Amino acid sequence: MTRRYSALSLLKEGLSGQKGWQPAWDDRPLKPRYDVVIIGGGGQGLATAYYLAKTHGITNVAVIEKGWLGGGNTGRNTTVVRSNYFFPESVRLYDLSLKLYEKLSIELNYNIMLSQRGMVSLAHTPAEMEMSARVVNAMQINGTDAELLDADGVRQRLPIHHGGPDARYPALGGIWQGRAGTARHDAVAWGYARAASKLGVDIIQQCEVEDFLIEGGRCRGLRTSRGEVRADRVGMAVAGHSSVLATKAGFRLPVTSYALQACVSEPVKPILDTVVLSPGTGTYASQSDKGEIVIGGALDRVPSYGQRGNLPVLETVIAGLLEMFPAFRQLKLMRQWAGIVDVVPDSSPILGESPLPGLFLNGGWGTGGFKAIPAGGTLLAHLLATGQHHDISRPFDLDRFTTGRLIDEAAGSGIAH
Amino acid sequence: MQIFSCPFCGPRPETEFHFGGEAGNDRPHGGASVPAQDWAAYLHLRHNPKGAAREIWMHTTCLEVFVMERDTLSMRAEPGQALGGHA
Amino acid sequence: MSAYRLPQGGEIDRTQPLSFTYDGRTVQGFAGDSYASALLASGETVLGRSFKYRRPRGIFGAGVEEPNIHADIRLNGALHLNQRVTTEAAQNGAQLRACGAAPGARSDRTRFVDLFARFIPSGFYYKTFMRPNWHLFEPSIRAMAGLGRVDATQPEGMQGEQRNHHCDAVVVGAGPVGIAAALMLAEGGLSVVLCDDGTRPGGSLLSRVAVIDGMDGAAWLAQALARLNAAGVTLLTRTTAFGVYDHGLIALNQRREGQADLFWRIRPQQIVLAAGAIERPLPFDRNDLPGILSAQAGLTYLRRYAVVAGKRVVIAANNDTGEEVLRALRDAGAEATLIDTRKGTTILSAQGRQQVTGVTLSTGEAIACDAVLVSGGFTPTIHLHAQSGGKLDWDAAKLAFVPRPGSSKVITLGGVAGHFTLAEAFAALPAALGLGQAPQAEPQSYRVAEAWPKPGMKGRVWIDYQHDVTVKDVELARRENFISVEHLKRYTTLGMATDQGKTSNLQGLALMGALTGRTIPEVGTTTYRPPFTPVPLASFAGPRGGARMNPVRRLALEAQHRAAGAKMGEYGGWLRPIHYGTDDSAILAEAKRARATVGVYDASPLGKIEVMGRDAAEFLDFVYYNTMSTLKPGRCRYGFMLTEGGIVHDDGVLVRLDEGRFIVSCSSSHVASVHALLEEWRQDRYPDRQIWIHDATPETATVTVTGPKALAVLERAGIDAAELPHMATGWTQLDEHELRVSRVSFTGDRSYELSVRQDLAPLLWDRAVAAAEAEGGGAMGIEALMILRAEKGFIVIGKDTDGMTRPMDLGSDAPLLRKKADFLGRRSLTLPEAQRPDRNQLVGLLPADGQGMLPVGAHGVETHQGAKRSIGYVTSSHQGAGVDHPIALGLIERGAQRHGEEIILHHLGTTRRAKLVAPCFLDPNGDRLDA
């Protein structure tokens, strides 16, 4: 039986028909009681379970998922990881994430294919160049890598970019973060699931939360489609649907759900080496290892829980892409989909205890939850294990909406998420 | 492309409309004495229903503000109703 | 394979030969051929390589389902990537290159990979390449992946075209059932669009024998097409209906010769789906060899293109359709054998290396052959039904997922509905359409027996050809617990190739079901997403490129500015003069001249939103931070508009023309948002009050004259404003025309904003500029104005403020302390955050190190225990015009209390020293306003 992944084990299994591999995670029945139950088997929930077991030694944990692991936004995003944020609070959060990502394949013994190909955020006008300088300086002061590119620097990294003076959106320069890149999204969920399962966490798929068990004003557990389960600490990591569960738990959140469109082209030979974001045209793109151009853009205009493709935003996003890369007119769109994201007024996540004591929140990620998975998991695990905020999660508590101390990245940097 | 119906202009493509928030989220009276919790709830807390919703929309070409009942999952949209019933 | 062409028959025109190249080899064909039929007729076998194992591959299908062979096609200078050779009409002179193979499909350099196949099963990459890190391995894997090769030297591809179309019904699929449905609808009085992704209408009638209404298929088709024409049906060939979107929108992509594709958006009353069904392969060892084709494809090549798949052909089918294929091949002179798997005999394995040379049956019998035609049953093309929210039922007799009746608004017919014979399909038409009479066809039987891939099958049995997913891979997925259908897809990449699993998905589900003891419907399907087949990005983008993308707004005076040598730039969506010189040195010169004498600039984009009516003053008190109702008629007042969050949304001067008439002069980039904000609050809060709002910005042109000689310029220009005090407004004349003059200043100098009807702008501009030149001044661009306003500490919203700036941060706290009435954002200004003492506040900065201008975007930093911390940033920076040194504005922590202090600035790794000062560098007492 082969548990550990390596070139050698592949070789060995190759000689015996790949028959010795173990389940990546075990299917176990839901027990009536756990120390901690985590709602949501996406990247955030699975990472939370892993860090609870690994860092805090709490292994009597269940992750319950209404569908299949990684089936929400973990499996629907455009796989970008980066930490090019403006405020120190954000940089600390996303840089923690990036640092954990950098070691994650080896830590989990699962290749998540972190590909730090770098990311260019283009500046198309003098005003955007000034804003880019403001962001680069903020990133440098906050201790993460950032460089301000001029037009030549952009040409060097994006030789196929149509950025001359006659272009509608010429590139005057941009923000470069070399450590940014992409990771294989499904692998992040599966890698955490495998590692958590190995440490004793129960992973329960096809298990939907029907209601919260509330006793003495505290969350004491859940009623699920697979029966009751009790736990004194419950974590919730269901971004996109945070409000649906909040309603069951009896409170409201500062969240509105929107669909975010994404699509991929047919695969082509390597042509785009970095992740590119153009706030001016509302488009970002990267090329996957399989060769597909992965394209994303702004949110839909209409609040929605419909996880399906729509045309209006997609059409303008693709128009923006072709404006920057006219050679991509040769490409065809192969697959289009949408994910539902929690949109919060300040575009920053919500981490902390909910208005229902005993229930802890991880949500509100907007379009940026995937890149934050290792950090979001670490911080929710800390909350669940200690009942207290980690220093890094403290500013992201719900109380900021009452005090007014928002962490409004869009306001600070003008960079879309 | 969804089609919404402005009480003033009739059916128009979704790209002409701007979401104005949930209906019934009334501005608290009391100026500076409004409790911080109430003000935060007015500013930020949302029902964000999955399914039937009642919302405020603006048609950005004629600037009519109206109420629309909609389903956020099936995307069914009822024709907009004028505020105060005087369209 | 030894496919060959018959001397007669088919749709091809033998009088019109053509030739093209494939991987450099010349291939002959005829007009009417597809690339695939011409390649087969030429005896070509290995035409592509599989994605992962680099297996030799030949043509499998005859249409959009083709999983194997894709080529980059260069024709008349244009490059088309990843084209299926089965769907494209062959063109003389085209150059085709097999996708994903180098140097060519036959000679692919990486074909050795198949030797290591046993070591690289599904998901192998998750288990290795971790040390030292993925970067070491990624480049070579990237280089091997990908199909076509983008030609970056040919950037000028065609822009897409789009069309919105209205009709009563769209019928998808112009086979016999779609045609019959279109006829019934059109002859019933509806307007109908009938589309088909093939090159001609007819569908199965083009390749299969049929008798309809007593006529043979071809004769029926001919008369039906004539009737379609007579009934006014719009028939679109080479047109794929690829997506159904919200509210009944159906999207079509039409391919056109020599033109860009045309993207159709149609929102019909009815969508009728008659797209047929796709034949599945059969599972056996090495079922991917070149020479193994779908049986219906073999029939299509024979009947449409007169190409016989081989001299000795084995046909294997689990259903009734094998018989016709057998007869047709025998009629064509081929030696053909039918294996009817329903009788218990199946193919166990195929032999051959570069092409199939024989098969071994379950009976042990070996048959030598040069082609194998397989039919594993049919999968209904239900994609558009499912995309529109429709549910599926498992039809155990047909072995197919069929649409659940009534679960979507799409009407499903024919093969889509699991009606695999014409008689059955026609019989269902009247009820489905709620209309009259359908054609009649002779009853046929369609019986099918299971022939799913089975656990433990020997050898290498392909399920997904393009992505090289085999039975063993599905077994591995099961072993590792990737048993949810979505996990199966993502882990093995089954169905994720460019064919999106049209020939493979169901076999994968069936096998996973068998492995986990579940039925096929229990396993379920993955989500069907648009597009049905890949659609050019250019079609989605349509004509939105270049100048048509987010078009800039143009000034009425653009011609005058250009004639005066203006360099134009985009500011807040408007194309405005940057300066009027040959280079950027003109900016400072224009600013200095305006300080010395006078400058004239085009201020037309400045917002001019009129608010009128008895209750306008009360309304404005609510939307402004400042008290506006006390403003006297004929006077102007500067103020802020906040969001409910207390953030400064806009600033500007409010003009009160008379008791019930105000003009909101908002920032040029905020006109639309301020107008919407005013309307929203008017309708929400003051619905029954007398308030009218009108945006007069587009119909008004504004020219501003500023500088010590401003009044002299007005006098020269014949504009009488001598009596007007600062912050006052009034009406005067430009010749016989009405002109509104406001004496407000964004520069600190005496200034007059002159507003006239848009069409009078040239008259006003020419007059003002001529007068200014006579006074030693002249026209100035926006950048000079930026210097002048910065010297006075006048902010630009969004530049000198950010999304956290409250009015108190800009030095304005009187309204919060004194104003009686409630106003937008009030409560937010008393929250702890707004009252925090260490907020970033507007401040002036001067270089303290004698090194010239401070960089915009530089941050003030403090170091505490070795850790740096930002204390705000520089927002504007200029070489002074009225003062002889660099100046800057910034938002700095506690800035208002720190005038005189020095701070350290960080900029791109370097540091500077700056001194904080009051945000006004010139004439703090305002004497120049009346100079």
How would you summarize the topology of this molecule?
The complex is a heterotrimer of chains A (417), B (87) and C (931).
Chain A: H1 7-15, E1 36-39, H2 43-56, E2 61-64, E3 80-81, H3 88-108, E4 119-123, H4 126-141, E5 147-150, H5 151-157, E6 173-177, E7 181-182, H6 185-198, E8 202-204, E9 209-215, E10 218-224, E11 227-230, E12 233-236, H7 242-249, E13 256-265, E14 275-278, E15 283-287, E16 293-303, H8 312-324, E17 332-343, E18 350-353, E19 359-363, H9 373-386, H10 400-403, H11 409-413
Chain B: E1 3-6, E2 10-13, E3 17-22, H1 36-44, E4 52-59, E5 64-71, E6 81-82
Chain C: E1 4-5, E2 13-22, E3 25-31, H1 35-41, E4 48-49, E5 56-57, E6 70-75, E7 78-84, E8 95-98, H2 138-144, E9 161-165, E10 169-172, H3 176-187, E11 192-195, E12 211-212, E13 215-216, H4 217-230, E14 234-236, E15 239-245, E16 249-254, E17 262-266, E18 270-273, E19 277-279, E20 292-294, H5 295-305, E21 307-308, E22 312-317, H6 322-331, E23 335-340, E24 347-351, E25 358-361, E26 366-368, E27 371-375, E28 378-380, H7 383-387, E29 392-395, E30 400-403, E31 410-412, H8 422-433, E32 462-464, E33 469-470, H9 471-479, H10 485-492, H11 505-516, H12 520-523, E34 535-536, H13 537-541, H14 558-563, E35 567-571, E36 574-579, H15 585-596, E37 599-602, E38 609-612, H16 616-623, E39 635-642, E40 648-658, E41 661-665, H17 671-685, E42 692-695, E43 700-706, H18 710-716, E44 728-734, E45 737-743, E46 751-757, H19 761-774, E47 778-779, H20 782-791, H21 814-818, H22 832-835, E48 840-847, E49 859-864, E50 867-879, E51 886-893, E52 902-907, E53 910-917
Parallel strand pairs in C: 2-8, 9-17, 10-11, 10-18, 11-14, 18-31, 20-27, 22-23, 22-27, 37-47
Antiparallel strand pairs in C: 1-21, 2-3, 4-5, 6-7, 6-8, 12-13, 15-16, 16-17, 19-28, 24-25, 25-26, 29-30, 32-33, 35-36, 37-43, 38-41, 38-42, 39-40, 40-41, 43-46, 44-45, 45-46, 48-51, 48-53, 49-50, 49-52, 50-51, 52-53
Helix pairs in contact in C: 3-4, 3-8, 5-6, 9-10, 9-11, 15-20, 18-19
